[in-house]
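Q: What structure does this chain adopt?
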Amino acid sequence: MKYSKLFGRTRHNPPCDADSVNAKLLTQAGFVEKLAAGIYNFLPLGQRVLTKVCNIIREEMNAVEGQEILMPSLHPVDIWETTGRRKTMDEILYKTRASGDKEFVFGPSHEEVVTPLVAKYIQSYKDLPLSVYQIQTKFRDEPRAKSGLLRGREFGMKDMYSFHTNEEDLDKYYETVKTAYFNVFERCGLKAYIIEASGGAFSDKFSHEFSVETPAGEDTIILCEKCGTAQNLEIAEGHVEGLEDEKELPMEEVKIERGFSVKENAKAHNVPDAKILKTVVYEVEDGGLIGIVIRGDLNVSDVKLERYMKKRLRPATPEALKKVGLVQGYISPVNISEDIGISFVADNSIKGVKNFVTGANKSGLDLKNVNVGTDFTVKEFADLVEVKTGFKCPKCHEHLSEIKAVEGGNIFKLGTKFSNAFGMNFADNDGKLKPVVMGCYGIGTTRLVGTIVEAKHDEKGIIWPKSVAPYLVHLISLGNDENVLKDAESLYEKLLEEGIEVLFDDRDTGAGVKLNDADLIGLPLRVVISKRTLESKGVEWKERTNAESEIVSIANLVKKIKEFQK
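A:
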């Protein structure tokens, strides 16, 4: 492709509303153009990258016996009501009405479509296992559409669904897809961590996410460098460092003036944050309050707590606390009035800690030397802590660290949730009808393009891996010398004849503009031909990942490019 004819050009400055590296660089380099928040046009350069990403995914899904189909984006609302997700996912559903006042939704996911579709073709165990996938556009009314291609309202996705006779068969296939996913990310030039995470609206079980480290990531990953264990912050497990053992002292009531925060409390009592017994109160979905007791230097994981309670909850408002007689900033499980109607659960972190400082459930009054079992009791202990840097790995006991990461893909064990909703059963070899067991496997295709840019760039521009670069070679002619222009045109034709993907910057513009644009666009190899290089019967060869360049003879250029391409 000649740059002079390319639709979509580089621009001198990034768009003023670009809020991420990928939004800035992809737009400035002429790969995408924003239409609205979370909605992008893909220009020729961007479409070539997206096509290559999709082809890699397609090859890996075909390799695990996935069969490609294509399902509609427009869904009758009644199938979403069948599963109950019309209500639970209402906030992100785009809705419309067709003739006859029939309501439809634009699909954010396709479980509601694929399940009744596959049910029509499954009669017995002989029809299973089965796996189908599609590469298609999804729609989600994201309240915070941001970060370029990382969080869109309209976006590309590969979603695959597998169907099995039992959990054991699903487990086996699930592991096979894990390997295929690692292959996808590796082939796209990325290192992915697999982490256990919440199933969210798609599953009541844990899911697995494939996350790529980048400062632009919205997820915090807890990582053990030694054994490679990676966990999502929401549900991460880890062992917190204990405090020095000491003798229990008798509890004392203390009058004190202090602020409400843990740090202000600790400073007022001249103790470390860890010696503050913190109580976080939540309102439970069906009414009532629960207090979570935890060390002052730690935080409660809301996701862990919801899984423990098996109910939705939210932090209690000041009004809710006041209504039952709880004094904000001084709440504790010690000597609490039974009339308040609150139960307490403790995080494991308070076990073995002696002589806490906590509130006395009265304004201006605290308690020192408070000990669990002696001065108060709790309903039970549980792992409710939000893990952070400094915790120890549950597997190898090395210290954990935090990294920021982008979720590039996720997989779920759906079980029989959707099969039961649509009555998708099969006749087993004993003649009995049983529900089909399902799995779900997603990769955001457009999101993956943005993720590559976030992970692969420098101060000059994008650094595309060879596997997904729109073109392999960026050929540049410098100057207006007739011999240079003639030889550049001849070289361009030669590379095309050899099947080498090349972008030829044939514009009549300055060397600085061309070289800067080459760095911005980020093709793997830059080949410059000029009057100076022709004097050596060669071209300047510079790989995007290297700072140095070299002169390569034109006679050996094609051979060297093909070796580089491998």
